[in-house]
């Protein structure tokens, strides 16, 4: 679609959401707020409008009006006017997930119930003069025709809003009579007492049904107003979400208040955006980043170095940034937040014109199974600067797989008949598959992996090793000085079966039980130093290859973070990529690299997350070498750093471009312009 044919919401957006507190209502000056958003380089605001509180004079029954609203003017109307005057788009935030206790007393059938029939009360122990809030049932009328739809109707009729966003639209377990009836009708059985026994699609279908009502009404009323809906990296059906929304958003929170032992993995923003981008022909997903280190500390900010690193992953992986703040700038006491948001948005504004319409240029796809195995592979790919996309099982079809040179299948992947056939077809056409763990004992898969039909899963092994086999072993690249690397965990005992199969690594069994590995050293010798039990088998199949690893490399990366396991991962994928990779970057651990294409131009994002998290300081990286494959017959006209504005010296050898980035603080985007 041509840039000038796009609607406003299909163009680059920099969203700022000041989450409002009702008791600060009199501190909201519409003109001043709009100018502050403008000064922070925001071009879109998300502002509270309806749901728990109406931020305007409402006529809808059971819609609780903010009692602190000004009496002499319409706050909502003035904020919208002030924003539009500055060319700032206004997205209306609604939250129908909760309602006040006076509503419950009059319409108790609209509220979620526990298994014992009690309503769910939010903040019952909150000190101060507050009414109680209670969770509403997603299948109840409050979130549909009784309140939510009339509120949408009222707002769309009165105010010139540009978009709609639903906060907390998801399912909350509920055992009300309405949910019990719906479950019985859908599944022919009673709603289980244990939520873990709910049908897998119950929560997602409830959310889809509710949002479908709201989306249908909004589109009928104001078809030009887009609707934004959440998706989740885990336990969600992104296809359901896409059916009932124009734009999607995700919220990778950097929650530090849970303590250092529970610090979120560094890759949450990257993976969340990649999953959203897996849906073709849609606006790029929003990545919502809270400014706080946890909701309990929402009145202070993330450490600035950590905050900048977390934010940078959103645009670097192809998402649109959405800042979530507690309060308006005048009520935010931690001014570091405002400084970080403003400085970051200014960087995004520089990059936006070049990234608009750019597409990821990834040679590797990772099957996203939303479990620890997929997380481990993602960790390794990011840690080794290998650009990749994530795919859901439904997306692993021949025409989609044809874009990639290599496909990673994590442990635990469900090998349906269709997926197994597509996998074999991908390899037959020249693709490279890396698979780990125990496969189902199906003839076509055993043939693809080149193993015999008798496979056995071991007990958890410790004090065991992986031994590289043979000379010039591609798995040993960079590890030539060692014949063994550490292994722990279960192994699938199997036998190679196939003329095209080569064993690249074998198991060295435990030399001792764990309780005696350290003492005495006189008994630390390996009782069996060499077996023929394979830990890596390379099979040539059709025009492609399969590297099957009958153990869990992702588990080793998740648990131990050893450099040799990351190297092994890169080598396993490198067999398929060969020497002509699209992108190579100096392998600093903690450095992320992504690659996008826009016509013949190339954009390389570099994000520096080096150091112990939460990052207290940004440790600069120096002399990062970048090697990039150029498009066929392309002539490089300029190479520069978009954010710093500095040109870069480069050289071209055949179809490869070489350059060195002298210094990287947090985020930079390299633009390679070609004729």
How are the elements arranged and paired?
Layout: E1 15-19, H1 30-39, E2 44-51, H2 75-85, E3 89-95, E4 98-100, H3 101-106, E5 121-122, E6 133-135, H4 148-158, E7 163-166, H5 177-187, H6 202-221, E8 227-230, H7 238-243, E9 247-250, H8 268-277, E10 286-290, H9 304-316, E11 320-326, H10 335-355, E12 359-360, E13 364-367, H11 372-383, E14 388-391, H12 398-401, E15 406-409, H13 417-428, E16 432-436, H14 443-449, E17 456-457, E18 461-468, E19 484-489, E20 492-493, E21 501-508, E22 534-541, E23 544-549, H15 553-560, H16 563-577, E24 583-585, E25 591-598, E26 601-608, E27 621-629, E28 636-641, E29 650-653, E30 656-664, E31 667-674
Parallel strand pairs: 1-2, 1-11, 2-3, 3-7, 7-8, 8-9, 9-10, 10-11, 13-14, 13-15, 15-16, 16-23
Antiparallel strand pairs: 4-6, 5-6, 12-25, 17-20, 18-19, 18-21, 21-22, 22-23, 24-27, 25-26, 26-31, 27-30, 28-31, 29-30
Radius of gyration: 27 Å
Work out the strand percent.
15-25%
Q: Give the biggest sheet.
A: 9 strands, mixed
> How widely separated are the two ends?
22 Å
How many helix segments? 16
**Helix and strand composition category:** alpha/beta
Strands in their spatial order, largest beta sheet? 14-13-15-16-23-22-21-18-19
Question: Which regions have little confidence, pLDDT < 50, spanning 5+ residues?
Answer: none
Helix content: 25-40%
Strand segment tally:
31
Mean pLDDT: 96
> Which outline best applies?
globular
């Amino acid at each position: 679609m041509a840039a000038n044919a796009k609607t406003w919401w299909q163009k680059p957006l920099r969203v700022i959401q000041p989450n409002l507190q009702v008791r600060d209502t009199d501190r909201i000056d519409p003109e001043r707020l709009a100018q502050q958003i403008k000064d922070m380089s925001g071009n879109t605001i998300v502002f509270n409008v309806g749901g728990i509180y109406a931020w305007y004079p409402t006529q809808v029954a059971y819609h609780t009006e903010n009692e602190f609203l000004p009496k002499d003017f319409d706050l909502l109307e003035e904020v919208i006017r002030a924003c539009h005057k500055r060319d700032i788009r206004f997205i209306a935030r609604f939250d129908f997930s909760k309602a006040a206790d006076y509503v419950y007393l009059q319409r108790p059938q609209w509220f979620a119930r526990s298994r014992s029939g009690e309503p769910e009360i939010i903040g019952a122990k909150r000190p101060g003069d507050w009414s109680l809030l209670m969770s509403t049932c997603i299948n109840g009328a409050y979130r549909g025709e009784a309140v939510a739809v009339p509120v949408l109707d009222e707002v769309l009729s009165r105010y010139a809003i540009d978009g709609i966003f639903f906060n907390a639209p998801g399912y909350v377990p509920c055992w009300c009579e309405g949910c019990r009836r719906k479950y019985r009708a859908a599944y022919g059985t009673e709603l289980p007492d244990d939520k873990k026994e709910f049908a897998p699609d119950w929560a997602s279908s409830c959310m889809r049904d509710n949002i479908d009502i709201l989306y249908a009404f909004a589109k009928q009323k104001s078809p030009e107003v887009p609707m934004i809906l959440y998706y989740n990296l885990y336990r969600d059906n992104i296809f359901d979400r896409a059916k009932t929304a124009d734009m999607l958003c995700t919220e990778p929170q950097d929650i530090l208040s849970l303590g250092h032992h529970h610090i979120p993995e560094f890759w949450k923003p990257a993976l969340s955006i990649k999953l959203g981008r897996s849906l073709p022909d849609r606006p790029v997903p929003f990545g919502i980043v809270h400014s706080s280190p946890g909701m309990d500390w929402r009145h202070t900010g993330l450490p600035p170095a950590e905050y900048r690193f977390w934010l940078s992953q959103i645009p670097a992986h192809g998402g649109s940034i959405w800042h979530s703040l507690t309060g308006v700038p005048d009520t935010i006491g931690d001014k570091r937040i405002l400084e970080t948001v403003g400085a970051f948005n200014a960087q995004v504004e520089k990059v936006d014109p070049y990234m608009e319409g750019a597409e990821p240029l990834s040679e590797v796809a990772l099957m996203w199974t939303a479990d620890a195995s997929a997380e481990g592979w993602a960790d390794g790919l990011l840690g080794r600067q290998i650009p990749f996309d994530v795919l859901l099982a439904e997306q692993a079809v021949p025409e989609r797989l044809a874009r990639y040179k290599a496909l990673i299948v994590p442990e635990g992947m469900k090998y349906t008949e269709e997926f197994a056939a597509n996998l074999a077809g991908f390899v037959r056409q020249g693709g490279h598959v890396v698979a780990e763990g125990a496969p189902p004992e199906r003839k076509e898969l055993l043939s693809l992996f080149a193993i015999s039909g008798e496979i056995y899963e071991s007990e958890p092994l410790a004090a065991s090793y992986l031994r590289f086999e043979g000379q010039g072993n591609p798995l040993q690249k960079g590890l030539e000085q060692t014949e063994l690397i550490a292994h722990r965990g279960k192994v699938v005992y199997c036998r190679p079966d196939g003329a095209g199969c080569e064993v690249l690594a074998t198991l060295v069994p435990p030399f001792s039980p764990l309780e005696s590995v350290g003492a005495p050293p006189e008994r630390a010798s390996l009782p069996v130093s060499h077996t023929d039990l394979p830990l890596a088998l390379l099979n040539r199949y059709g025009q492609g290859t399969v590297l099957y690893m009958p153990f869990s490399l992702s588990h080793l990366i998740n648990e131990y973070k050893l450099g040799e396991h990351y190297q092994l991962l890169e080598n396993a994928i490198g067999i398929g990529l060969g020497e002509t990779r699209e992108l190579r970057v100096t392998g600093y651990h903690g450095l992320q690299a992504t690659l996008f294409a826009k016509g013949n131009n190339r954009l390389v994002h570099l994000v520096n997350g080096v150091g112990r998290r939460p990052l207290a300081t940004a440790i600069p990286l120096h002399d990062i070498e970048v090697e990039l494959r150029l498009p066929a017959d392309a002539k490089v006209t300029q190479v520069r750093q978009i954010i710093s504005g500095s040109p870069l010296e480069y050289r071209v050898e055949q179809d490869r471009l070489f350059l060195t980035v002298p210094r990287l603080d947090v985020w930079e985007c390299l633009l390679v312009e070609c004729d």
